Amino acid sequence: DAGITQSPRHKVTETGTPVTLRCHQTENHRYMYWYRQDPGHGLRLIHYSYGVKDTDKGEVSDGYSVSRSKTEDFLLTLESATSSQTSVYFCAISNDAVNTEAFFGQGTRLTVV
Amino acid sequence: DQQVKQNSPSLSVQEGRISILNCDYTNSMFDYFLWYKKYPAEGPTFLISISSIKDKNEDGRFTVFLNKSAKHLSLHIVPSQPGDSAVYFCAAGSGGYNKLIFGAGTRLAVHP
Question: How does pLDDT run across B30-70, given as a tens digit for each residue?
């Protein structure tokens, strides 16, 4: 299994509070991704990183920010959580830019009440 | 507008028979397709992939077929086993940086 650890695994937070999810990898892969999974939508890309301090938006980036200060860590921040951000969040890594599989972490279940 | 569609939310198959999961896409620029398997409370696990220059890729009990003219791919599992019961996601590679576009998933149930 690829060495990907997501923390926390579960979190309940209140509307309007900031939340940070962490993804830590031990594979030294250059590319890292944050996806969210919702019923009827599969997985949708929030943000991705193609190197330290290099990040870009995915298809559902509104309300989220990311940071990558080290190769091994990719942080996802909800600046002010809303109920629509209740979801399961997955971090993924890959070692190439194209045509290769991505490896996923076990997910973080976030509930915004 | 979903670029990758899995129109069957669920599929039930008897153990030992063939499972066929289908996926359609709309973007002709996709050049790499993948299938992931997901168990509850776990992350998706890569299963098999296919490049757009091929029409078939096989790995043990799993075979993926690609029909570019129809923008359709399918995953065949033969023979199906109860441990194959999971949600299967079709994904397509798009736009560089290995960004993946996923379908909504098909829940496969293999019963004895």
Answer: 989 999 999 999 999 999 999 999 999 999 999 999 999 99
**Burial class (CB within 10 angstroms; exposed 0-12, middle 13-18, buried 19+) of A17:** exposed
Nearest to A23 by CA among A86, A109, A106: A106
d(CA A30, CA A14): 34
What residues pair up with A72 in beta bridges, in sequence order?
none
For residue B43, give both structure tokens. Answer: 């992350």
Cα–Cα distance between B36 and B45 in angstroms, integer? 5
In chain B, which residues have their Cβ closer than 8 Å to the Cβ of A44? 102
Residue with tokens 């290099």: A54
- Chain B CB contacts of A68 below 8 Å: none
- Write out residues 54-93 of B within 8 Å (CB-CB) of A: 89, 91, 93
